[in-house]
Records
---
Amino acid sequence: MSDDRRPTLATVAARAAVSRQTVSNALNAPHLVHPETLERVLGAVAELGYRPHGAARQLRTRRSGVVGLRLEPTADGISGAVLDRFLHSVTEQAQLRGYRVMLFTAADDDAEIDQYGELVDVLGVDAFVLTSTHHGDPRTRWLSASDVPFVTFGRPWATTSADDRDPADVADHAWVDVDGAVGTRAAVEHLLDLGHRRIAFIGWPSGSDVGDDRRRGWERAMRAAGATGDEELDRLSISVVDGVGTGVLAAERLLSRAQPTAFVCASDSLALGALSASRTLAAAASGDQPAVVGFDDTPVARAVGLSSVAQPLTEAAGRAFELLLAQLTDQHRAGGEPADRAVLLNPRLVVRDSSAHRRPPT
Amino acid sequence: MSDDRRPTLATVAARAAVSRQTVSNALNAPHLVHPETLERVLGAVAELGYRPHGAARQLRTRRSGVVGLRLEPTADGISGAVLDRFLHSVTEQAQLRGYRVMLFTAADDDAEIDQYGELVDVLGVDAFVLTSTHHGDPRTRWLSASDVPFVTFGRPWATTSADDRDPADVADHAWVDVDGAVGTRAAVEHLLDLGHRRIAFIGWPSGSDVGDDRRRGWERAMRAAGATGDEELDRLSISVVDGVGTGVLAAERLLSRAQPTAFVCASDSLALGALSASRTLAAAASGDQPAVVGFDDTPVARAVGLSSVAQPLTEAAGRAFELLLAQLTDQHRAGGEPADRAVLLNPRLVVRDSSAHRRPPT
């Protein structure tokens, strides 16, 4: 249904036979309005179901109902799709709870911090959702110090050691994250079940928290399956910058030096490259095509039949919003149990043609 | 640099040795404040460079500096990437001009119209950017009738006939669009240059304005190249719902009934299907692999080497914002030359491996 008859300040003024300024005064500075007039105006407001303008409400409540989120520049368009899908989910989850999402862009962390000040002071933004957190992130420090509610999609990596996985210990602010190591581990176990043993890993250069986490899951699963030597693990893994072309080169190098029968990759971009190299190999040698598993279950993976690890983005957005609301609606921010402010979700392996076939015993 | 020292209402109050309420009154209801106090507070405001809170500014200027944009649910994740990239561009172009983008979701046009009322009345949104316009769109009628500034990414199809391409005639509101027919025509001409003659088209069911436009470009280029009969054009074209799987089936059917040597497709999803069918055919018959051109230059196209027609999304977002600003900053909305409110941009063909090779003469 359309909203043509939604009452405005003007229709209230007409009904009460006063000026628009008088209606505005009645709502925002009632002491300026004669009591009889005030009664007539408020009667018209109630009768017509008029909702006062947000700005006036905002001055009274000090709440805008608006959450800020920085749009990341999309790097290759494949991995960027994950953050775009998270944005869709955050917007839907916010709206379900009566909030809106305001976007902004910033070239780096410092520029993002400058934006926070502007968004809070000038536009009255209530809270922020942060993405792409990293080691020593200055943004969370600034927001904590400024007492601005926020939640991060991504854990506070600085305090997460490889073997310390208790969320309660790392909850110096509210965060939601997906356990990448669980995802790559599930990929390796799926490939082991199919009969693969030489399972290679194509990842990012070490120092990227997310990338190190994804490599860790592969390494642990391989050790659990009997790959004992560091040398063997080094031979079966390689680090390259993200991309399809680098994925091709990485897969070719691994195929020639370690003859893997399967690849687990830190991203769908790398996996797409590995898939292409695997097809070329199978066509040339008419041998079995190596299996490939990617990460993030992007549209590309669905389109080309690539198995991939899917992040539960709708759930992540919903949980992030719950953590924000807890801060916005009570004094939960400073206090509360740390464990209540940290949510680590498990991803889910989606199996497609690229890794669906059982290996013949060798 | 960080913003730790940005002045707030509290620092102004401390400097002027008054309460925060007095500072607020000095800014928003100066008649309530003693003249000497007022002078001291405004002196502190100027000295500290304090910017009053957006909500107060908003009440005075009736401008929030916020533009609303509806997030579309992503259908298959491939075509949806185009609107996500447009969103990135709109956010960047808005911010360059001192505006912000507020997101919302809606299940259909009527729900979107309901949201307009809420966003304007309650949140003070200044203007809207609309996407996915269509024949008889009720949203533009509502916004025009409500005198809310807006611009559409997509032309007002209702008044565009096949042969009437003068933008001045169809500018009953401000719009920016990309000429899809120019894109598919460029794809056909590229394939003709390579020696192809039997160039098929895989499109969407007729009735979709964008889809009909893309088919039109193929048809005109084919007629210009000597494909005279309607029967021949019918045999060389097919309509299916968008998707990779439907693209495979459509290409197989066309290959068996018309032996095309090339495909022009209305989307990258369909083109990806045609590419897969073409590879299968070439592998089975060890003949030449048909050439394929998609539409929208999505990340999938870049990843798999698919030629595709690229929309100039950054330029479209920038031009859309200029059209909005013209409405927000002067009385341009009702008056002005219609041609100034309509912008039709040309897309650009990006050639990749899927159509890069010259045909041998047949």
Note: The two ends of chain B are 66 Å apart (CA to CA).
---
Amino acid sequence: MSNRPLILISNDDGVQAQGIRELTRMMCRLGDVIVVAPDGPRSAASCCISPLTTIIIRLLKQEDGLTVYQCSGTPTDCVKLALDGLLTRKPDLMVSGINHGDNASISIHYSGTVGAALEACMKQVPAIAFSLKTKSQQCNFLPFEELIIQTARYALENGLPQDVLLNVNFPEVEALKGTKVCRMSRGRWMKEMEKEKEGAYHLTGYFQNLEPDAEDTDYWALEHGYAAITPIQLDMTASAWLEELKGSFVVRG
Amino acid sequence: MSNRPLILISNDDGVQAQGIRELTRMMCRLGDVIVVAPDGPRSAASCCISPLTTIIIRLLKQEDGLTVYQCSGTPTDCVKLALDGLLTRKPDLMVSGINHGDNASISIHYSGTVGAALEACMKQVPAIAFSLKTKSQQCNFLPFEELIIQTARYALENGLPQDVLLNVNFPEVEALKGTKVCRMSRGRWMKEMEKEKEGAYHLTGYFQNLEPDAEDTDYWALEHGYAAITPIQLDMTASAWLEELKGSFVVRG
């Protein structure tokens, strides 16, 4: 068995996407790599899983230090399958992406890229989601390589806090201005349904940042040429509101 | 136009499920109701959306104070469609469920019931997700009716804090011991993949509560006969860890 770290990779754009191929190349600098990724695009898969269908995997590549599987399921299925079905030991790190399209602000709730990383985090594997704010399927990921390596190495050497993962977004630039550690921006999607004909619609719309001047947010960083690193947590409890709410529901049901 | 409150309902078990039919009957006590729900089961749909397909809706019922649509999309698609395509005014309340199966602890990340409520919350509509800890498709929801009415009335009269929704879970009992306002329990799903044959798996597994003695958690409430009301928030930033992380990434990228 290799003494190198074991790194699991998945994404939501599918195993053939440029982003995951670049991320795989980068991670091979740091350890032994296993890729388990969907067999086609699963954008906006969130943490969706497939309880009702058989999940099919196929080995695409097995060479020294690199194993690649494609999977018929969602990104979350891929991570569950890797951790519960394929691997004989827990990975030292899980990375997801590099997504073609940002996953900042509330878009993390829809993101299969973040969903895959959340799943690894739930299983106590340090996890990082990487996304590039682009609309293109062919991108230049090289300007981000050293930060990706540095972030991955940080997680490998230090681990991450319990139930916390890193969500990293890049602006589409030739050279980053720098890196901001930041919180999720408030935002919303607007005009999301376009009518095709009576009874038939398709998704569309645009994102509106509700805090365009907040320099401590992920969206501000992206719009100003910085990489955004946001720690996100599994616990969604609105803790600040617990006590107030307790006063309202002193009831016997 | 009616002066009664307008209440939007969705779920992830599909428009024909007993839980949404019961919830619809209950909400008709409080206001005019529009149901937009999937045309079949979408369990574990999370916040998944359908950007690549046409979404088809069909009007099933239109009578005084009650309109029912079925939709080919996910629970989140249903809510987007209702708010952006079908309704001419913003609802006063959105309720989701009643789900057949609990959505406590980390299971909220997979839940289409919670996903639908998150979507309404993102659109500034007060939202509540209701779930019953059961494995049955035929359940007795009557023991929870008064708490459901009370919770919905609370949200109608007071609203909910910005970017916060309520996640309500019931134990399968004939009479609730009471109601607990509580946080998400830490937990994990175990042994989730069962091999059918070489290269073919299906999801299975069981939930393990990692804090069985923590009386302030949703899972403790459920296991002791109480309804669990957990406020959850859109912002997943791990705020407690922001400052520590800032020291680690003072880099130029």
Note: The mean pLDDT of chain B is 95.
